[in-house]
Amino acid sequence: MSTAPQVVFDAFHPAHRSNPYPRYAAVREYTALYPLRPDILMATRYRECAAVFADPLWGHGYEDGINPFRPGVDPDDVPGSMLRMDPPNHTRVRGLVKSAFMPRTTAGIRDRIENLVNRLLDAAIEAGEVDLMEAFARPLPLTIIGDLLGIPREDHTMVQKWSLEIVRGTDPDILQTPESLARRPAAMAEFEAYFAALLARRRVDPRDDILTGLCAAQDEGQLNGGREPLGLAVGLLIGGYETISDVIGKSIVALLRNPDQVQRWLADPDLAAPAVDELLRYEPPVQFTHRVALAEREVAGHTFARGDGIVILTAAANRDPAVYIDPDRLDITRFAGRAPAPRHLSFSGGPHYCLGAHLGRLETEIAIDTLLRRAPGLALTDEPVWRDTVAIHGLDTLPVRLRA
């Protein structure tokens, strides 16, 4: 494979922040595997990305000390226990919290989501013009995952600050400033100290929440001592808050820019669920992730040695024309009917398939469906401002008018 690619990958330049997809398309058309470094390639097409996700011998490599993306890093310094683990530890830890996110469990909170959505919209509609990220897209998922974990609502502002710092820290180190690199471990330490105090409170005041369950699991020897339950709590909070708020915000923008799709949605309530999958395909919150070869693997004719890395460009794979017809067009019927399109990759796949996928879909469906029906005058009042992050891609502000 050539070490001097003819196509320059520049999708992360600030000029492309609002719409990196044409740049993704250029590199996807150029090659299935784009060289970033001799030991790190980037998968750009659906077939290769899906295959890597499905293969359990593509992992993270932190515990074995072979991760080339952050060589030498202490595994405990990677936010979110499950995000740094490979089996068997990943299997053990995932199993402890999996039941809290199963469809039969999350279906029980539908009423809570609907009530919260309507309360937030009552205030936003009364105000008339709001930043919909601040008034709706952020407080909804933060309240839901916060309540599931057991985070006091008065702590939300503080939690948001740490969460944003960690989201910024998920971007490649080469794209970060020295200041942001320095803030990453500080935010993680503050977040963990906060959860350590909450866990200590749950030991003397147990409740029906995930943190109480983590205490019990630790007491029973199912979780290691030290930082493992803290990292798990941080990972669950960020996964259940940041990515869902980004999905909601970006979906609203996509729909406002495609009013014909709004009309189709409003005309057919049964399209709400498949529409969410199309929005996830079209504007995924996580644009890319990475894996490490835990053994020699072959992808698209290239042999990866143990310890080599691959970047999975999910956002490019989701718009692969070899898989999706007219992939740059928003079509909320794409995943409907008896012959839906192939599954998008926005929730990853294989052993690391997103634990909160069902909850994320449910929150997004209720949020957007209720918003469209309660605010038919919904319109942008200015251009949205995009957050300065590239891995977890979302909006900073979303100025709208909710009534004519």
Automatic annotation (TrEMBL):
Signal peptide: none annotated. Coiled coil: none annotated. InterPro entries: Cyt_P450 (IPR001128), Cyt_P450_B (IPR002397), Cyt_P450_CS (IPR017972), Cyt_P450_sf (IPR036396). GO terms for molecular function: heme binding; iron ion binding; monooxygenase activity; oxidoreductase activity, acting on paired donors, with incorporation or reduction of molecular oxygen. Keywords: Heme, Iron, Metal-binding, Monooxygenase, Oxidoreductase. Pfam families: p450. The keyword Plastid does not apply. Belongs to the cytochrome P450 family. This is Cytochrome P450.
